[in-house]
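Structural prep section.
Before we set up the soaks we want a predicted structure of the protein with zinc ion in place, mainly to decide which crystallisation condition to try first. Input record follows.
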Amino acid sequence: MLSHTKKCPECGSRNVSLWMGGRLGIIYICKDCGYRGPLVVEEDVEN
Ligand SMILES: [Zn+2]
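Run finished without errors. Recording the tokens verbatim:
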């Protein structure tokens, strides 16, 4: 099975959550390093 995951571009953590930033659009927040931004690394991982 392949599952699609999003990873933080700064620290590589998968502990990234989506935050709707209103006028700013979609922003992701990393709970591990505090990264905030529109970009994440999207990856297909085999379970
Ligand atoms: Zn991070």
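Observations: Residues 26 and 37 are 8 Å apart (CA to CA).
Flagged for discussion at group meeting.
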